[in-house]
């Protein structure tokens, strides 16, 4: 069975700017579409979408569907789900990718439930490959391999949707790389009439108040990250890490355990359920190195581990291992940096 | 106004504390080595339900869970904290379900249950972290959904006002009842068990558990209707065999691998002034910092 249908990415935007995660998915989507020999499409749903396609085309997008209506911004579940469900019935994409964001994780399941299409959350890799059903022996070519951690990150599972379309997957921000294919790449804009896709009764949930702040934390793009684990003991324990990060011009990150314990805010969480980072320098302070954390930082260029426990799992992937108390080592690093930098 | 509240909950292996014995030699999970717990965010959902009950005397909270017969353990846990009763949807044919087949099965159970005002559940379960079952149940029941809820601010006149916690801020929404609300881990923690309720409900059992009791205890349970939890089968909730379990799951697991990271050759830096200063100088010299 070959599938000539296209691959579509649901693009999120805020303040007229397409979300990074959507651009990352377009970058990946282009690679997958080339492999399949199909078009890369995008859909944007909302209000004031003038020229938004100009941000989307450079990633190699062939078609941008625009569904514009002032009631479609800000995002609410049922109307956006209705648009996608009706659009997908028409254009029958073989693959649909979304960001594993508050929006994508709210919208994806609703769409997949209605279309009975199957959805894999929080994929860390997407590939194209063949599949043979172990029971029936039926063979499938060119399926989307949806690769994701499971069981708290202790295993990695490859999931396929052999029979249902679209094959749907969500991916967290920062997991895929964002790369412009050609700044001059031009595709086609298809403006759709919102009234044909969404009914008045879909607008059931009303937003009465909304405070969206630009995230002040930008760990994804920081070249230097000082990350702390549960071992930092408290909010105050993290102050020292902020000192080091400020001295070096970096950001503070944290393990899931430290975030769950309330030591720092959630946008600093690194790992499979947080952000994936690839800084020049990663200083892990009191982080034991659970698989789910390592998966989100192992591509860092240089990793320094500071830990009391010489056998902490993170030490196996570290370039430099310092066995000692964080409270002891970090002030010395600050001191010697100040002394030796110009 | 008294409310009929359904709380969806799951008994999960405690994946947050996976020890060395949790993985077998062949890389598969040794479920027996992991304690089974009340999924954490489902407890956050239970607390929101209990607050609704506090504000609306006469309300009832029914815990609905799908799993093995032993999942009645979390129903008792919920009752100790203030829930009224519970149902375990349990059947061999439900095994191997992906999120879609799971949500279909649970939606069928909700339909069977009938009269309800609001359905609450945790945002996601820690064994899968998908956050899909809540919205999929809402879709199957044709209900609105409010995900990432941090607090139910108000419930009156057939509407519920909910504060949502998003990546980059907060949103307050009003949704008509009935609806499905999934609760975030940032919501208020669940209240503890109540000693008097433990006394009263410690013999609250499902039919399969009742079978294992002594005759004396069985008689006690039979005399007190509130000690009888329910067990429902797939057939009882009129589930289509083609839409449940492995058969009803569009997603298939093709392969499972243990996670192995390639070890690097690490350099050990002694925790003394000379070595630490040398490290800093080296990082400055190769332009990693500075």
UniProtKB/TrEMBL annotation, chain A:
InterPro entries according to UniProt: DHS-like_NAD/FAD-binding_dom, ETF_a/b_N, ETF_a/FixB, ETF_alpha_N, ETF_asu_C, Rossmann-like_a/b/a_fold
Keywords, comma-separated and alphabetical: Electron transport, Transport
Ranges of residues in domain Electron transfer flavoprotein alpha/beta-subunit N-terminal: 7-207
Gene3D superfamilies membership: HUPs, TPP-binding domain
Homology family: Belongs to the ETF alpha-subunit/FixB family.
Descriptive protein name: Electron transfer flavoprotein subunit alpha/FixB family protein
Organism, scientific name: Heminiphilus faecis
